[in-house]
Write a structure and sequence with these properties.
206 residues; alpha/beta; seven-stranded parallel β-sheet; three-stranded antiparallel β-sheet; 5 helices; 10 strands; elongated
Length: 206
């Protein structure tokens, strides 16, 4: 809104390409740009990190989406668990996808984090857990500090976070039976969005 004809902008397509552009015309609700140079992102140096999480309430979901995008999470899977209290519909998830775009602009990220539709727990166990390394946050698991983080660098990693009350004992058992491993994030009780971002940050910053 503050730009003028002749000013330069940086554009991105959400799929990994950034472009330098010059404004050649401005109208009330649009702008005409001339592309000057396109630059694709370098090849990824790590495997995808996927965050599957029960859905927190209201603004806390938007905060989670923003921070996960900024950190570099590749995909977000909203989970419907036995203790879930929020089940976002299509309209809400579309708003969250727009929040991904805004977070990419702010952070300089050129690839959009994808957000799946809400998935029931049983279907998630069948469709997602068996195909990648999976860590489920659970206070009964081994401490995070005991993990060999480098061992997870070469394979897609699925990080699973429960609702405020945690996963039920049955859900934890089902996840382990499907091939997941549990991990404890410490003695403090964390909100869903705090646990999700803390666990994702450990692997993405590593």
């Amino acid at each position: 809104m503050r730009k003028r004809v002749g000013d330069r902008l940086t554009l991105f397509d959400g799929a990994g390409t950034e472009a330098d552009a010059e404004i050649v015309a401005l109208a009330r609700t649009s702008a005409t740009l001339r592309l000057c140079e396109c630059q694709p992102d370098p090849p990824a140096t790590r495997a995808p990190v996927i965050l599957a999480t029960a859905v927190p309430k209201a603004d806390r979901l938007r905060w989670l989406v923003e921070k996960a995008t900024e950190l570099g999470v590749d995909r977000l899977i909203p989970l419907q668990t036995s203790r879930s209290v929020v089940a976002p519909g299509t309209v809400k998830l579309d708003k969250m996808r727009q929040a991904v775009v805004e977070a990419c602009k702010q952070s300089g990220r050129n690839r959009l984090m994808t957000i799946d539709s809400l998935i029931p727990w049983k279907q998630f166990l069948t469709d997602a857990v068996p195909t990648q390394a999976t860590l489920v946050a659970d206070r009964g698991g081994p401490p995070l500090a005991s993990l060999d983080l480098a061992a997870f660098a070469a394979t897609p990693l699925l990080l699973v976070i429960g609702p405020e009350g945690g996963f039920s004992a049955t859900e934890v058992h089902e996840a382990v039976a499907a091939g997941a491993h549990t991990v404890c994030l410490g003695s403090n009780i964390l909100r869903t969005e705090t646990a999700a971002i803390a666990l994702a940050a450990v692997f993405l910053m590593h």
